[in-house]
UniProtKB/TrEMBL annotation:
<dbReference type="GO" id="GO:0022857">
    <property type="term" value="F:transmembrane transporter activity"/>
</dbReference>
<feature type="transmembrane region" description="Helical">
    <location>
        <begin position="285"/>
        <end position="318"/>
    </location>
</feature>
<feature type="transmembrane region" description="Helical">
    <location>
        <begin position="21"/>
        <end position="44"/>
    </location>
</feature>
<feature type="transmembrane region" description="Helical">
    <location>
        <begin position="367"/>
        <end position="393"/>
    </location>
</feature>
<feature type="domain" description="Major facilitator superfamily (MFS) profile">
    <location>
        <begin position="17"/>
        <end position="397"/>
    </location>
</feature>
<feature type="transmembrane region" description="Helical">
    <location>
        <begin position="50"/>
        <end position="70"/>
    </location>
</feature>
<feature type="transmembrane region" description="Helical">
    <location>
        <begin position="173"/>
        <end position="194"/>
    </location>
</feature>
<dbReference type="InterPro" id="IPR050171">
    <property type="entry name" value="MFS_Transporters"/>
</dbReference>
<keyword id="KW-0813">Transport</keyword>
<keyword id="KW-1003">Cell membrane</keyword>
<feature type="transmembrane region" description="Helical">
    <location>
        <begin position="82"/>
        <end position="103"/>
    </location>
</feature>
<keyword id="KW-0472">Membrane</keyword>
<keyword id="KW-0812">Transmembrane</keyword>
<dbReference type="InterPro" id="IPR020846">
    <property type="entry name" value="MFS_dom"/>
</dbReference>
<protein>
    <submittedName>
        <fullName>MFS transporter</fullName>
    </submittedName>
</protein>
<keyword id="KW-1133">Transmembrane helix</keyword>
<dbReference type="GO" id="GO:0005886">
    <property type="term" value="C:plasma membrane"/>
</dbReference>
Length: 422
C-alpha cells in the first residue's frame, strides 16, 4: 500500500484530505444516527422488558468503554488504516446480528459489537489525523472530524425514519450497514503514513498501558478529570431536552423539533470553533463552551413553554458545537509521539466514563429530589469543568499565533508535571 509522506506545514490544506479523512467519519456517524433511535424499540419487539431494553441500549457505551484500551494496542500493531477497515467489518457483523432474527441476546451482542467497533474506528481516525495534520491546523482538523460525525448522526435519523415508513424497522439497520461498508471502503484507500516505520512500530509496541499511565498520571488525573466532567454534562444534554419537554407537557413531535433544531446549530459551528482554537488557544473555546453549557442547564427549569425551551436548547446546541473536537484536540496536544494510540486509548476512557456518569447522576438526583434539582446540579458540572479547563489546559507561549504544539517530555517525565507555558 502506498505510504503518505509527512505533511508540508506550509502548503497543507484540509480540503486535500477531505474525502479520505472525513468521508468515513460522516458515514460512521450516519450509521450510528440511523440505528440509535430504534435500538430500544427493536429490543422490546424481541421480548425485552423496559429495564432489559435500556440495558441493551447501554451496551453501545459499555462496548466502547471496554474496548478503548485494546483499541490503542490494536492501532499500534496494525496501523490506523487497517484498524478502521477492521472496525467497519466488525460493525457490519454487528448490524447483521441486529437484522437477523436470532433472538434478544444475539441482538444485544450485535449492539455490543457496534459499540466496540466504534471505539476502534474513532481512536484510529483521531491518531491518523493527529499525525497527518500540521500542529497549526490540528484543532480545525479534529473539530471538523467531530463535526463530520455529528452531521452524519444528524442526517441518519431522518433517513431511517423515511425508510421505516415504507419498509419497517429493519430498514434502519440496512441503511447503517450500507453506510459502514462505504466507510470501510473509503478507509481502505487511505495511505499509511511514512512515519509508520518498523522501528517506530517496535518502539510504540514496547510501551504498555500501565507504563503509559505511570508516565503520564498527572496529565490523566488533572486534564483527564476535566475531560470527564466535560463529557458528563455533554452526554446529559442528550436526555435533558426530551425529559424537560415531556415534564412541561410538550408532545413527542414538539420535543423532536426542539432536539433537531438544537442539533442543527450544534453541527453548524464546529469549523469556526476549531479555527478559534488554532489561533487563540484551546482555553478560548473550552472555557466558554462549558460556561454556556452549564448556564443552559441552570436556566432550563425557568422554561415552561415551547418557545422558551427552544431558546434554551439552541443555547445548549451552540455550546456543544463550540466544543466540537475539543476532547480529541486536547488529547492530541498532550499525547506523546511514541505510543500515541496507547495514550489516546486511556484518554478516551476518561471521556467515556464521564459520558456514562453524567446521565446516571441526572437520573439519580431526579429520583431523590426532582428533575429541576437534577438539571441544575448537572449544570454545575459544566461550571466545574470550565474551572478545570482554565487551570489545567497549558497556556500558549506569548505572541504565538499557531496551535499549541507541546514537545514530547524526556523519557519518564509527564508533560503534566512541567511548568505550564505562559
Amino acid at each position: 500500500m502506498k505510504r503518505r509522506p509527512p505533511p508540508d506545514p506550509e502548503s497543507f490544506r484540509l480540503r486535500d484530505i477531505a474525502v479520505a479523512a472525513y468521508g468515513p467519519s460522516a458515514l460512521f456517524g450516519l450509521a450510528e444516527g440511523a440505528m440509535l433511535p430504534v435500538i430500544t424499540l427493536s429490543a422490546l419487539e424481541r421480548g425485552a422488558s423496559l429495564s432489559t431494553a435500556a440495558f441493551i441500549a447501554a451496551l453501545l457505551g459499555i462496548g466502547s468503554i471496554l474496548t478503548n484500551i485494546p483499541a490503542g494496542a490494536l492501532t499500534t500493531r496494525i496501523g490506523e488504516r487497517w484498524s478502521m477497515v477492521l472496525a467497519a467489518a466488525a460493525s457490519a457483523i454487528g448490524l447483521l446480528l441486529c437484522i437477523l432474527p436470532f433472538g434478544l441476546w444475539v441482538y444485544g451482542a450485535g449492539v455490543f459489537v457496534l459499540g466496540s467497533a466504534s471505539a476502534v474506528f474513532t481512536l484510529a481516525r483521531q491518531t491518523y489525523l493527529t499525525d497527518m495534520v500540521p500542529p497549526r491546523m490540528r484543532a480545525r482538523a479534529l473539530s471538523t472530524l467531530g463535526g463530520s460525525m455529528r452531521i452524519g448522526v444528524f442526517i441518519g435519523p431522518f433517513l431511517s425514519a423515511a425508510a421505516m415508513h415504507f419498509f419497517g424497522v429493519t430498514s434502519a439497520y440496512v441503511i447503517s450497514l450500507v453506510a459502514v461498508i462505504g466507510a470501510g471502503l473509503i478507509a481502505f484507500t487511505v495511505p499509511d503514513l511514512e512515519t509508520r516505520t518498523p522501528a517506530a512500530v517496535h518502539a510504540a509496541k514496547s510501551i504498555s498501558t500501565v507504563t503509559m499511565f505511570r508516565t503520564h498520571w498527572r496529565t490523566f488525573l488533572t486534564l483527564g478529570i476535566a475531560v470527564l466532567l466535560l463529557s458528563a454534562i455533554r452526554q446529559s444534554r442528550q436526555i435533558v431536552i426530551p425529559l424537560w419537554a415531556t415534564h412541561i407537557g410538550l408532545d413527542e413531535s414538539q420535543a423532536s423539533i426542539i432536539y433537531g433544531i438544537a442539533g442543527a446549530i450544534d453541527a453548524a459551528v464546529f469549523y469556526p470553533a476549531g479555527k478559534v482554537m488554532d489561533r487563540y488557544g484551546r482555553r478560548a473555546v473550552a472555557v466558554p463552551c462549558m460556561v454556556l453549557m452549564g448556564l443552559s442547564f441552570v436556566i432550563m427549569p425557568l422554561s415552561g413553554a415551547f418557545v422558551t425551551i427552544m431558546l434554551v436548547a439552541m443555547l445548549m446546541g451552540f455550546a456543544n458545537g463550540l466544543g466540537s473536537g475539543i476532547i480529541m484536540t486536547l488529547g492530541a496536544d498532550v499525547s506523546p509521539a511514541v505510543g500515541r494510540a496507547t495514550f489516546l486509548g486511556v484518554w478516551r476512557e476518561f471521556a467515556d466514563a464521564g459520558a456514562g456518569l453524567g446521565p446516571v447522576m441526572l437520573s439519580t438526583l431526579t429520583a431523590v429530589a426532582s428533575l429541576s434539582v437534577g438539571v441544575i446540579a448537572t449544570g454545575c458540572i459544566g461550571f466545574a469543568a470550565a474551572i478545570a479547563m482554565w487551570v489545567w489546559i497549558p497556556k500558549r507561549p506569548a505572541g504565538y499565533t499557531g496551535a499549541i504544539a507541546l514537545p514530547d517530555p524526556p523519557p519518564g517525565q509527564d508533560p503534566g508535571a512541567t511548568k505550564p507555558l505562559s
